[in-house]
Each structure stands twice: as C-alpha cells, then as structure tokens.
Amino acid sequence: MKQYSFLTETKIQDLVKDEEWQKLRSSLVGTWKTYPERNCQLLRNYLGDIQTCSYEKLRIVMNYLTGSGFRMGIIKHPCIIQLRRDISVEMKRRKLKKDF
Fold first, then answer.
1. Number of separate domains in the chain
2. Residue 3, pLDDT score
3. Which residue of 7, 24, 30, 36 has the smallest Cβ count within 10 Å?
4. pLDDT tens digits for 3-45?
C-alpha cells in the first residue's frame, strides 16, 4: 500500500480533477432525491473495497459527501450517513496506523 504524508498531500482541488471521478460526479447531479441508494452504491463501486482503496479516493468521496447539499441536510438518506461513517472510520484507522 502506498504511503502518503499529510504534509505533502495533494490538494483536493487537484484530486477531484480525475476524469473517472468527474464522470461519476456528473452522473449524480440532480438524482439524489430519487435514487439515493443507487447513488451510494455508485460511490461504493467507485471506491471499491474501502479498506484497500486509495487514500485519494477516500478523500474525494468524503469531500463530496460533506459538501453543502449534504451538510445542510438538503440531500439526506441513511445510506449516505453509513457511507460517510465507513469512510471516516477507515481514514481514522489509516491515520492511526500511518497507513495512508
């Protein structure tokens, strides 16, 4: 697994330029009210196994899920809360083990 230093982390603005992420993000626009579970599954598919996916992908999805629409409660669903929790737990685990 790659090692990353928090002092040299890539800026989130650069990470989100990833073409695969941009296609997925675009496909989610305007669909959360109707298809929240499908969208959560698409995000999980993008990540793959949360315990082994890249730290960059965890950051990208967590950044997305803490954006204003989610933070203000405009977009909400139990699957979003669970996905955010799963990512948060994994990020904390990696930080504690310095495995990021």
1. 1
2. 45
3. 7
4. 444 434 788 899 999 999 999 999 999 999 999 999 999 999 9
11 DSSP assignment: P
Q: What does the chain come to in residues? A: 100
Tokens 């904390």 identify what position?
92
| Contacts for 48-53: CB closer than 8 Å, 24+ residues apart | 50/86, 50/87, 50/90, 51/90, 52/1
Q: Answer yes or no: is 20 within a domain.
A: no
- Quote the CA–CA distance of 19 and 16 in Å, as a whole number: 8
Structure token digits, residue 13:
């603005």
Cα separation, 47 vs 62, whole angstroms: 11
- With respect to residue 66, please indicate whether it lies within any of the assigned structural domains: yes
Task: Give me the phi and psi of 29, to 5 degrees please.
Answer: -60, 125
Mean pLDDT of the chain: 90
Contact 100, 52 (CB under 8 A): no
Asked if residue 18 is part of any domain, the answer here is no
- Which structural domain, as residue segments, surrounds residue 72? 42-100
